[in-house]
Amino acid sequence: MAVRVGVLGATGAVGQRLIQLLDPHPSFEIAALTASEDSAGKTYRQAAKWRVDSPIPDDVAELTVSATDPDEVPEDIDLLFSSLPSSVGAAVEPDFCEAGYVVSSNSSNARMADDVPLVVPEVNADHLDLLEVQRDERGWDGALVKNPNCSTITFVPTLAALAEYGLESVHVATLQAVSGAGYDGVSSMEIIDNAIPHIGSEEDKLETESRKLLGDFDGAELTHNDVEVSASCNRIPTIDGHLENVWVETEEDLSPTKAAEEMEAYPSLDLRSSPDQLVHVFDAPDRPQPRMDRTIGDGMAIAAGGLQETPFGLQYNCLAHNTIRGAAGASVLNGELLLENGYL
Ligand SMILES: NC(=O)c1ccc[n+]([C@@H]2O[C@H](COP(=O)([O-])OP(=O)(O)OC[C@H]3O[C@@H](n4cnc5c(N)ncnc54)[C@H](OP(=O)(O)O)[C@@H]3O)[C@@H](O)[C@H]2O)c1
Prior knowledge:
Residues 4-131 form the Semialdehyde dehydrogenase NAD-binding domain. By secondary structure, the chain is α/β, with parallel strands linked by helices.
């Protein structure tokens, strides 16, 4: 029988992607949708300005949107996917966990908390057991697990594939799509014919979340990886797909050919939303490109290319679909991992 799930922030850009990925899903059945007070009481069709490239599933369209409050969500829901603005997530996600719900969240609040697992299943599935520490410390029946920022997810799997060579330093420059800022995030007058060389607190997220993801969990405590990471984030006028230029210095020698082999061989998982192959490496130096390569593996794979030696270490480019692999798909994958590991 499918697990009954809800979506918090269901009307937003990520919420709509969540609904696209969850309906249909063999393990999950959407049974609750929440948004702001402005949307509460409306049917989903009335409340959501639907912008995803497939129709609203009929059964979801007629569900009534409720306010984002534990008292408004049925008790028989086992799992909530959260795509709330981070200020709202910070205020309400702990209330849901305290009320017994397991929350798989996209929002940036609490990602760096010591007892909150920040998980990309192919990279650090073992960190999920930090939930035992979380439940002990907070006394929650529920639980809170996070996926990282969309631009962090794009480059961390490639680093994980190279980690055995000893990561010393990483420099990353991003070219991020406008959908990463939400529908109302960047005005057309700002971004058309332009590029914006700074994105809020995004640099800090890449630098800190990557070290947490690549860290070690000993069953009680998480130690962050000590690799030095420096990020520069740029907004460009693409719709979907974050492209990143990465420079990596390793302790052991690592040729571009060997690095490409390691990336291609890096294992995916058997979860329903895992891509068959996690990292695809292009030989052509002008790939990956957002428009052509963001849907590889149904938007759940990472594309890489342009591997070369430079005076600053190994250099390459990587790309991921920011609202699928970088947001909604990442939360769904964490939900599948929670189910497989008996947390639901
Ligand atoms: N876009 C991306 O690529 C991406 C990637 C990774 C992570 N994220 C993160 O995911 C989250 C959602 O991003 P988004 O782009 O989907 O944002 P969005 O399009 O602005 O959607 C926000 C959602 O939250 C609801 N909401 C707003 N204020 C609320 C309140 N006070 N109480 C309850 N619900 C409220 C909105 O409902 P109404 O429609 O009723 O206003 C809507 O459903 C953010 O934390 C973002 O940082 C986004």
